[in-house]
Design a protein that fits this description.
By secondary structure, the protein is α/β, with parallel strands linked by helices. It has one domain: Spore Coat Polysaccharide Biosynthesis Protein SpsA, Chain A (Alpha-Beta Complex). Helices cover 37% and strands 25% of the residues. It has eleven helices and 13 strands. A hairpin with a 2-residue loop joins strand 2 and strand 3. The protein is globular.
Length: 279
Amino acid sequence: MRVAKAVVPAAGLGMRVRSLAGDRPKELLEVGGKPLIAHAVEGLAASGICEIAVVVSPAKEEIRRFLLGTYPKGVAEACRFAFVGQPRPLGVADAVSLCREFIGGEPFALIMPDNVLLEGPPVISQILPHFLRCGLDTIGAIRLNAAQVRSFGNVGFLKVHPVPGETERVFRALDYSDKSREPVDLRSVPSMLKGFGCGVHLPHFFDLIEEWRPRLAGEVDEVPVLQTLARQGSLLAVELVGTGFDAGNADGFQAAARFAATRDTAAARGRARSGGAQN
């Protein structure tokens, strides 16, 4: 089994970061001098996945222009982009469903560009080996403590169980929490795993979307699909190595930008000291 294609949903309204992005797509906000969508694309390419469907709305043509024009050459030239239009913001699962013909009955990677992992291998490269070994839908997750929770959305918290024969970072997902308006309370536990908006999925993901579509009012979200897979015992979660940020909200984006700036400053100082020692 080979994973050669990916879906990157980028058609959302971005209301949580409108104060930062203004009229620009949130996916073009920069962390560490690089737009969020570039983090996603480069991570996919580094994981060996270069056929990428990017879902955009009519108001986000700037993303297409960036990837095909102003994006620095190299990675962009190695990738084949297909741009899929989502006329109305009807949810992540609806965006994924529009890519069914592009995927063509193959397993595929799914990555949300506003979840950015710093100081770690690309998320899909961490997920792929376990997907290929187990043959089950596999998502990435990060471990959060009480102090970190407020910088993340209140959805996708996991109940898990270790997978016999796998590493200590691989779990079978037993439950995937709904979206909530209330802050998640972690005072009773030291930490929890949370889905990180990335995964590798089997083509039945599309069938599950269509099964849920008639029962959903408004947005067709991926949450019920992942909950179904968890109830079926066919969803794995890989605890990712690295420092993750939900850059789709203002607090998370600013935390990511500060972390990247501190990291880059430390790296520059290290290079300066190294150069001075050589001289």
